[in-house]
Amino acid sequence: MALTSYGDPAGCKRYIFYRKRSFMNIKTNSNFHNIKETYLFSEIASRVRRYSAENPEKVLIRLGIGDVTLPLAPVVVSAMSDAAQEMGRGDTFRGYPPEAGYEFLRQAIADHYRDNNAEIKLSEIFVSDGAKSDLGNFVDILGANDVLIPDPVYPVYVDSNLMNGNIITLIKGSRENGFLPMPDAIGEKKAYVIYICSPNNPTGAAYNGEQLAAWVNYALETGSLIIYDSAYEAFITDELPHTIYGIEGADKCAVEICSFSKFAGFTGVRCGWTVVPEGLVSDDGTSLNKMWFRRQSTKFNGVSYPVQRAAEAALSKAGMHQCLANIDYYRRNAAMIADVLDRKGIFYTGGKNSPYIWLLCPDNMGSWEFFDKLLNEAQIVGTPGEGFGKAGEGYFRLTAFGTAENTAEACRRLESLL
Amino acid sequence: MALTSYGDPAGCKRYIFYRKRSFMNIKTNSNFHNIKETYLFSEIASRVRRYSAENPEKVLIRLGIGDVTLPLAPVVVSAMSDAAQEMGRGDTFRGYPPEAGYEFLRQAIADHYRDNNAEIKLSEIFVSDGAKSDLGNFVDILGANDVLIPDPVYPVYVDSNLMNGNIITLIKGSRENGFLPMPDAIGEKKAYVIYICSPNNPTGAAYNGEQLAAWVNYALETGSLIIYDSAYEAFITDELPHTIYGIEGADKCAVEICSFSKFAGFTGVRCGWTVVPEGLVSDDGTSLNKMWFRRQSTKFNGVSYPVQRAAEAALSKAGMHQCLANIDYYRRNAAMIADVLDRKGIFYTGGKNSPYIWLLCPDNMGSWEFFDKLLNEAQIVGTPGEGFGKAGEGYFRLTAFGTAENTAEACRRLESLL
């Protein structure tokens, strides 16, 4: 592998004196200039650093992260290490995986949908390295459309569309609509690419069947495409749809992007999937399913075999049991926090059907003002709502991904602070 | 996880009667209409199926695939399964990885470059799930440039640029230039985004230092960007550069995309990396390094932790030793095939510095004509050259990724056939 000297190195060096400029003459994607640099988490980090430096004796409780903390389920670990061993034996080694995912995993995902009363063909399922990749890359197969995105929301929807130069219309979440904006709030009734995240990140609010049906109806009526992000569906406890395909007609207007990250704790393992129904046909008669397959088989080479075996294990009977036990642990944390806010009469969304609690900052405090108060007076680190969009100003996100002990202690501190 | 009934299902159903059309009103990426559907491998598969059905007693030898066949190195397997176990314990579990890769792996890659006499900063290294993803996604940060691509070549360069609507100029490889086209063959001397794959897929031809320096010089002189695909560098045996950063000035004009797929047999594990030097600045003063980081942190969420540990192990002293032993195995296969062609006086490129042998079809046969002859008379499956571009017509690709026994038998058959 060592770089060996080649022919006449001097012969190479003499060329560089032709260098005429310090810039290249190639064009970059100018749409990148329209993306805001997000300083949210670096600003949080620096305020926390400063506080800890000044108060080395204080113990902080971090309820800001959206990342899981419990270890992987035992069946998942075994499946992944067994698959790694398989890759080390000549008779069981596997090379390039199918771009859309191994049939064993797509079958497990299809069976999972069937358990949820939704019929999805294997040819409609595309396994990927995570929901973020698919959410970001899906714009590759779309043209210049008007895009409708709820505010506040997971920043990837906005940024990936800005990178493609698309026109974005924000639809505002608020206390009035319980952070569940509905189609009747849309100004101009026309075809949009509509992003829906339910249960929502960051608000934890989740649409019920009738509300989702209203969105599906709007899409069918206007010829819109819904990109449905169901990454948090495993946290649903109320009688709400776990998939948009539980709504009749969704297979004619909606793509669904889901993930093993929150359900099975795969944030560090990386696996998700996208459903592109064969019934999705664009205005020029193009099949979105065929386009997405072409995109994926051109710009993607499939998911690691051990990771796909791990994902299959998470969907097995034992896997579901072990993964849902972890989900229940986080749910109990969320409930503890929600109880405090209930007793204090503070408005919030989430807390159930979601690992997130989205609360109105007390006494009309700003997001950052409340961040500093929580940090200084209760040593709790959360996330200012305005980091998720303008409509998040004055709101604050706490997460249920801490340990039960820390969450309980945080609740005691909140009890006395609020 | 079960989809529970919600509120009033009838309330949902009534909406769908608003459905007005069978098509959506959203626009898709019309550039996809310019991409040729590739029937190469499906056509190969169907001809092989037909032949096997008619000749069930015949034993086929497959030298068509570009996929590795030897199992992973033992140290790689241990590292991957150990990391899987870590993910199952609370004290060693890891959530979201850094988008650009863990420092331990970027450090191992930087050390690897240092061994090759190239100084690369950690901030210039971006770990990914494979070279194909990066080659396909890199166009995201580029604008509408003239693109220069050698012919024949790995189809991803052409397809991913067509998807973005870029204008492509092909630069022809031929027997005359040994399938190593040089800048002097460029019609209009101007700034291009230039794709270079060396050692080349499919021809196996590899540029020497002076030839690469000529390309670097052209790029520096015109302000072009070189996208250098070094996925096959581990197969280099002659005194040739293993990285374009062995050429002075390359850090001002070249991105390098490399992979663990061929070096460590990671085609089924999925890991690669891209180097974007901080010295790459576009005409409007934009840093390509910053843009790529923004693209990756928006549309990608990092590589699986066990996979990154496996990749780190492949670059360890023991890993290099075990991986290069596999490379040597393939090299001996390539040499066997090359020997036959040498004795028969058949023109070819590759066979050394590459797992590929790219040969001129004897007796002016067409690629598919020779494919049928090899299949029918020697029961050998290869790949017709025209599958890699117009300049591949009349050429044929054999690979060294078979077993030593099958390759030896194939050589005996070629010996008597040619």
Question: What does this entry look like structurally?
Answer:
The structure is a homodimer of 418-residue chains. With 418 residues, chain A is of the alpha/beta class. Chain A has 2 domains: 40-69 and 323-417, Aspartate Aminotransferase, domain 1; 74-315, Type I PLP-dependent aspartate aminotransferase-like (Major domain) (Aspartate Aminotransferase, domain 2, 3-Layer(aba) Sandwich). In chain A, 36% of the residues lie in helices and 13% in strands. Chain A has 12 helices and 13 strands. Chain A has helices spanning 9-13, 40-54, 74-86, 103-115, 131-137, 156-163, 209-222, 288-299, 305-314, 317-344, 367-378, 404-417; strands spanning 61-62, 125-128, 146-151, 167-172, 193-197, 225-229, 254-259, 272-275, 348-350, 356-360, 380-381, 383-384, 395-399. In chain A, the strands form 3 sheets. A 7-stranded mixed beta sheet of chain A has the order 2-8-7-6-5-3-4, with helices on both faces. In chain A, strands 9-10-13-12 form a 4-stranded antiparallel beta sheet. Chain A has a two-stranded parallel ribbon with strand order 1-11. In chain A, a hairpin with a 5-residue loop joins strand 9 (348-350) and strand 10. The longest helix of chain A is centred in the last third of the chain and has 28 residues, at 317-344. Chain A starts with 8 loop residues before the first helix and ends with a helix. The model of chain A is unreliable at 1-20 (pLDDT under 50).
Give the tags.
globular, 12 helices, disordered N terminus, 2 domains, homodimer, seven-stranded mixed beta sheet, Aspartate Aminotransferase, domain 1, four-stranded antiparallel beta sheet, 418 residues, alpha/beta, Aspartate Aminotransferase, domain 2
